[in-house]
Amino acid sequence: MAEIEIYTQYGCPYCTRAVALLTSKGAAFQEIKAPNGSPERATSVQRSGGRTSVPQIFIDGRHIGGCDDLMALNAKGQLDPLLQAA
């Protein structure tokens, strides 16, 4: 299985939606709480090339993007192969 990291913030509906999709796929992931002003949020911004919103999702170290990007990959049938990568 792929290594999945998702930076989230409490109360974020996009974070909830992204987590729900990954959970429905049976994917194991590390959820990193990254509220505004936290060191985790700064790491997320740095790793994502400057994106300040959450969620920010990484699969095997590759930046996937946010919730909309994750949903688009799923709609195109490109998410499952990423999740299955070893």
TrEMBL record:
Q: Which GO terms describe its cellular component?
A: cytoplasm
Tell me one GO biological process term.
cell redox homeostasis
Ranges of residues in domain Glutaredoxin: 4-64
Task: Give GO terms: molecular function aspect only.
Answer: glutathione disulfide oxidoreductase activity
Write down the CDD domains for this protein, in alphabetical order. Answer: GRX_GRXb_1_3_like
Q: Which PROSITE patterns match?
A: GLUTAREDOXIN_1 (PS00195), GLUTAREDOXIN_2 (PS51354)
- Per the UniProt record, one Pfam family is Glutaredoxin
Alphabetized UniProt keyword annotations:
Cytoplasm, Disulfide bond, Electron transport, Redox-active center, Transport
- Which InterPro entries does this entry report, sorted A to Z? GLR_AS, Glutaredoxin, Glutaredoxin_subgr, GRX_bact, Thioredoxin-like_sf
Concerning NCBIfam families, the annotation shows: GRX_bact
Q: What does this protein do?
A: Has a glutathione-disulfide oxidoreductase activity in the presence of NADPH and glutathione reductase. Reduces low molecular weight disulfides and proteins.
Q: What family does this chain come from, according to its entry?
A: Belongs to the glutaredoxin family.
The protein depicted here goes by the name Glutaredoxin
Q: Which gene encodes it?
A: grxC
